[in-house]
Structure formats: structure tokens, C-alpha cells
Amino acid sequence: MRIYEGSPRQDFEEVLRSIGAFLDQRGMQEVLLAEAPDGFIVQGLVVETGGSGGWSESMGGRHKETLTFLDDDIARFMEEALARRAAGQAATWAGSGYYERAFRVIGRYMDEQKPRDIFFFEQDGAFVVRLLLGAPGGAKHALVEFTRDDIEAMIDQGPSLRQVEGPSPTAPGTAR
Question: What global pTM score does this model have?
Fold first, then answer.
């Protein structure tokens, strides 16, 4: 991640948590996230509220939306989130939105893997993650699938993992 070049570690946990909080506020679902050289590209479905027409229009419809988050946007999201938490305005872990919590635990897993590049998509609460990892003889892609139950278990473990020093246990998931 360009934001963290020269840093001792890439902090996908906080970066993805920040993006997830934004997506929760936006009401986005069925998300796809790809890392780009200068940030992230996110696609997902959003509900478009209806206009001044009849009842069926007020229900709204779902449409695909694509967002680009540049490194400066991510840095701003992270600073705003830290300021909210420092001021005591942050929601509790259990009260934060689904994508904020899910992206955070996926980011923690990614930090442990130390990928060079990330891509993932979500459908019905399950995630398929593709990581570009350094390997002897060159880089290689690894796929990991997290079921909805895996994500929920990781979210449930989240608060206790932050209280433990040292490496966290390997996340559930099926490497492919």
C-alpha cells in the first residue's frame, strides 16, 4: 500500500476498517474491493431511494456503484476515525456497522500474511480474498475463502485479540 511505504508494516486492519465504516454509512452491499497503485477501487450495490412518485418508487431499487479511494482519502478517513475514537464518539465494537467489523478482521488476517497486493469480494456475508504474496522464486497469488460463519467468529474474537500481546491466532478460512 503506497500510504505505508517505508513503514515497518502495512496496516490493512485500520485501512479496511475505515473503508468499511464509509461503506456502512453509504449503505453499500455485495462489495468488491481491489487495491490500485494509488488507493482502492470499490464496487457494490446501493439502494436508490425513490422520488416523489407512488409507493413503488419510494421503495427504491438497487444499482451498482463504483468508488475510488485515493491514498489521501484513506489517510483522511483514518484520521477522522481516530479523532472520533479519541473524543469518545465512536460506537462500541458491537455497535459498529457490519462492513467496518468484517473489513477490520479481514485486514488483521491480511496484515499477518504481509501481502503485496489485495483483492476481495463479498456475497451474502462470505468473502473470497486473493492476496499477492512474496515467495521464493517470485510472487504468487493465494486464495482464501471466509464463510459468513468464519467472519462472524472472527468478529466475535476481535475484542479479545486486541487485548493479547504478540501474534494473533490464524483466522478461520479455507486456503486454496
Answer: 0.78
